[in-house]
């Protein structure tokens, strides 16, 4: 589970996009990625996940906060197709966790000796920090291929290579082919295998273009985000997962003048009823993600 949560942070970090918004005289905007060779973006992404469970009348839970500091660089662009090759690298990660087993804090830059669960998690952080991985994507935001090093695969081996690649490919929104109007929405569906071969997870993301907005004296393009998630376990599985309630509030802000994402914030809440080998668990997850982006100096 810890390895999967670390991977989730990586995937959220890969939401970084560099769109160009051209608001034409027709009142419609054309959203396309702007990917000049050599462009570097510095990203700081913070994610907090609060997980509470009720099993057989016993309450338990975890509270985890993770911050990743990442560099994102465009290495090459195909002149005909516009497909870009991008190198991503996590320069530093910090993590703070509180659970029934105890509390700990980790900083990949620290030389502090770790013990117990902190040591296990810390070893996974070491495997992915400073290990660049690449991806290719087109101008609409479709990730075509992912290339990650062996160390990355080892650190997240419970996910499996195929699932990891699929998650990264489907992490970013793919912009509409035609120009869009204010309040126009589009959807994107992602089906991903669950760890352990339990089944699949279906995520339906709805994006709504809200037009330009002045934020701290800068005009930014705004896209609202809504996500709905369902789980489908295998027929022969001993587990069932039913989502009983969920809500998502999210926004992405694009700096069209400078051609890069300015910030993003997504808050999600979900309640689930889980049954596994005769045990029933009521689970509540509160997840918040905030990212800020700036051109490297």
Briefly say what this structure is:
The protein is built from four helices and 14 strands. By secondary structure, the chain is mainly β.
Structure explained in plain terms:
The chain is mainly beta. It has one domain (2-295): Lipovitellin-phosvitin complex, beta-sheet shell regions, CATH 2.30.230. Helices cover 13% and strands 58% of the residues. The chain has 4 helices and 14 strands. It has helices at 2-13, 116-128, 150-155, 161-169; strands at residues 19-23, 29-33, 40-55, 58-77, 84-99, 102-107, 133-137, 143-147, 185-193, 199-215, 218-233, 239-255, 260-276, 279-295. Strands 3, 4, 5, 6, 7, 8, 9, 10, 11, 12, 13 and 14 form a 12-stranded antiparallel sheet that branches. The protein is globular, with a radius of gyration of 20 Å. The relative contact order is 0.17. Mean pLDDT is 81; it is low at 1-19.
């Amino acid at each position: 589970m810890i390895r999967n949560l670390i991977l989730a942070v990586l995937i959220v970090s890969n939401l970084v996009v560099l769109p160009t918004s051209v608001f034409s005289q027709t009142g419609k905007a054309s959203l396309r990625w702007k990917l000049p060779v050599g462009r570097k973006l510095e990203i700081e992404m913070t994610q907090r996940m609060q997980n509470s469970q009720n099993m057989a009348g016993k309450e338990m839970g975890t509270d985890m906060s993770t911050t990743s500091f990442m560099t994102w660089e465009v290495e090459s662009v195909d002149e005909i197709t516009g497909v870009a090759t991008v190198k991503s690298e996590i320069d530093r990660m910090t993590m703070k966790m509180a659970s029934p087993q105890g509390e700990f804090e980790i900083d990949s830059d620290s030389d502090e000796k770790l013990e117990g669960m902190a040591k296990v998690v810390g070893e996974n952080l070491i495997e992915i920090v400073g290990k660049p991985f690449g991806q290719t994507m087109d101008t609409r935001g479709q990730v075509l291929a992912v290339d990650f090093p062996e160390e990355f695969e080892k650190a997240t081996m419970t996910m499996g290579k195929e699932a990891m690649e699929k998650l990264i490919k489907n992490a970013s929104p793919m912009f509409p082919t035609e120009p869009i109007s204010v309040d126009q929405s589009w959807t994107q569906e992602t089906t991903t295998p669950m760890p352990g071969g339990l089944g699949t997870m279906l995520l339906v993301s709805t994006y709504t273009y809200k037009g330009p907005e002045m934020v701290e004296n800068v005009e930014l393009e705004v896209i609202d985000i809504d996500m709905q998630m369902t789980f489908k376990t295998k027929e022969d599985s001993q587990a069932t997962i039913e989502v009983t309630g969920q809500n998502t509030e999210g926004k992405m802000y694009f700096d069209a003048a400078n051609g890069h994402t300015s910030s993003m914030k997504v808050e999600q809440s979900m309640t689930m009823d889980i049954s596994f080998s005769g045990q029933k668990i009521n689970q509540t997850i509160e997840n918040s993600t905030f990212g800020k982006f700036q051109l490297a100096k």
